[in-house]
Amino acid sequence: MFWLYMGTSGVLSDLVYHFGGLDGPTILFLATLGAITIFRREMSCNHCYVEEPSTDSRIGERTEDDEISSKDWNDEETEELLEGAGRYCSGALLAPVIDNLLKILHGKGNNMVDSLLSEHRPQTTEEILDAAGCYCSGIPFLRSLFRSRPPRSIRVISFSHAYNQQGFLPSLPLDAQIHMLSFLHPRDIVNVACVNKACNRLIDEGPSSSLVWKTIWNRDYAWLVESWDIGRLAKERSGIEPNFSKDFYFRFSLASTNYLLAGQNNYDRCLVGIGGHIYDLSLFLAVHPGSPETVMAHAGQDATDFFARINHSAGARQIAKSHCVVVDLAFVDPEDCGAKPTKAISLDESCTVITAPAQVDPPSTYHSNTLITKRPTLERIRDEFLREEIAHKALASSMDIPALLGDVNVYYDPLAMKWKAWYTSKQFERIFIGFNNNVKQ
Amino acid sequence: MEDAIVKLTSKEGETFDVPRKVAMMSKLVKDTFSDDDDEDDEEDETEVKEVPLPNVTAPVLKKVIEYCTHYQDEEMTPIQTPLKSGTLDELVQAWYANFVKVDRNMLFDLVAAANFMDIKPLLDLTCLAVSILIKGKSAQELRQMFNISAELSPEEQAEAQRENAVAE
Questions:
Q1: Residue A183: which of B29, B52, B127 has the nearest Cβ?
Q2: ipTM > 0.90 for the complex
Q3: Is A277 a domain residue?
Q4: Which one in A55, A247, B71, B106 has a CA-CA gap of 20 to 30 Å to A199?
Q5: Which residues constitute the signal peptide according to the record (chain A) (predicted)?
């Protein structure tokens, strides 16, 4: 009875709040609500349990069948029972009554009652999966699944059943399967996708696949654009949240250096990518043996080839090491993947909603191997990416841009899923441009 | 309050007496309690509470309690991802590595139970153990290991392999 009362009064106070401004209808309305409150017992779904005296006498007459069925968990019955419990708490039982009242009063009550009721349980698979996504990112899964709190623990069962028959190990809940994948290298994950249809669906298609790759991306790269100031600038330029998929993950890993560093080639902020890692040379510019302009001409992008061509000495590499801010783990250990900050980087901890990165030491050896092959990627995605890059570079060099310093630098924006470019004007401004038509390969 | 006992009831109806602190590792148990506290704050707090766990069998529940009890003495090392080492012993303490050296069905039941009871470190450990089984195996090896039929035609298999071919 306590719950019914709470549920009812909750709904009532909401309604009163919404219609408090009205005069004539409000009085009528409040009167009706008063009547509901007084006669709530008669309207309640379980008044028979409270008031029928025969309930007690029936206990003695319980047959053996009753005993068994109460022990044996029948899903449908449980579901029904819980459904009842849900309504019992949420006040949904009164919904039709209130709904009708509102229709009479305003002829438009539906929306509000609907929105009141819809708050209580996630309905579609997608919502459930989304809740599972929250779990992966560290927010307790069950809490978010029941935005209103579960009346009793047993209510969880019906949801665990909803997961069954999906994915890699059908006997296990989907979110646990995604949790398993979250320990693995992307190489192993794409391998699992080849096992059978269910695995393929889990990893390559549909809402579950975006969850899988969201989890992996959060683990490996998300901090770059969420809590690193340089990366946040890049994300602001994209102006869009990522759309998670397998292609997004691998394209991000291929595009990250040029995407993150675009435009970072001035005296205050001079960043450069060498051999997969990112170096912040802002403080080093003034003492660089070559002119600062040489460095700046190649900053704001991956400069591995240029760095190698100049034939930097061991000492120079040692100095570079001390300016390293982001380490690409794949270039340190092929068993590893993802990017990590060094102690030299400053992170805005306040917005680290995703996996907080453990800081690592800068790598001691510099790998001169071509960038792209070291990062975990798929043949198809890498080939597409490289072909597109060549096409857009050709497009950029054919553009007629006056007052230009150096080259037009092409980069892929993985969030917006578009190729873009930027250049330095004669006034030392960074100009960002898009391509009218992305070249499709 | 400290030595209060919680009764956890398995699917079969078998009841286990567990110290409150140990049982509280499960967020499910914890949430059940905080719900109760809100409802009847005036009620006698020392009363022994019972939590039904209708989809955890007795042998699995026993293992879960064993884990939670040991966790009070020695916290498990948080697990680094992605896995660099292929052996459990290098990732967690010996006791935890031995804890998941069980047959596969038991391991899966433990994953399901940890997920259901919402015990984060146990879920991490059991999922880690399954991940280690998966790590570095080919699709064919995985099929044999988990006894899964391919249900894909040879063409579909070739297509999936092509799509997911890792660039070297």
A1: B127
A2: no
A3: yes
A4: B106
A5: none
- Which CATH number characterizes residue A318's domain? 3.10.120.10
- Once rounded to an integer, what is the mean pLDDT over residues A417-437? 87
Q: Smallest CA–CA separation between B164 and chain A, in Å?
A: 6
Contact residues, chain A, for B39 at CB < 8 Å: 2
Domain contains A440: no
Residue of B36, B118, B164 to mutate when probing chain A, most A C-beta within 10 A = B164
Question: Comparing A53 with B123, which gets the higher pLDDT?
Answer: B123
Answer yes or no: do B160 and A179 touch at CB < 8 A: no
Cα dihedral B37, B42, B47, B50, rounded to 10, equals -40
* CB contact (8 A) between residue B134 and residue A187: no
What CATH number did the domain enclosing B23 receive? 3.30.710.10
For the stretch A370-425, pLDDT in tens is 555 678 889 999 999 999 999 999 998 888 887 788 889 999 999 999 999 999 88
Look at residue B90 and tell me if it is in a domain: yes
Q: Is the pLDDT of residue A182 over 80?
A: yes
Q: How far are the Cα atoms of A11, A312, A339 from residue B39, in angstroms, in the given order?
A: 19, 71, 47
Could you tell me if residue A438 is inside a domain? Answer: no
A323 token code pair: 């300016």
Domain count, chain A: 1
AA letter at A38: I
Q: Do residues A5 and A88 lie in contact, with contact meaning Cβ atoms separated by under 8 Å?
A: no
In this complex, do B82 and A184 lie within 8 Å of one another by their Cβ atoms? Answer: yes
User: Which residue out of B12, B115, B144, B145 would a mutagenesis test of the A interface target, given it has the greatest number of A Cβ atoms within 10 Å?
Assistant: B115
- Please answer yes or no on whether B118 and A185 come within 8 Å at the CB atom: no
Range of the domain at A353: 263-363
Asked if the structure places residue B165 within a domain, the reply is no
Structural domain containing residue B67 = 5-136
pTM here is 0.69
Into how many domains does chain B fold? Answer: 1
Residue A329 near residue A336, CB atoms below 8 Å: yes
Asked whether residue B36 is assigned to any structural domain, the reply reads: yes
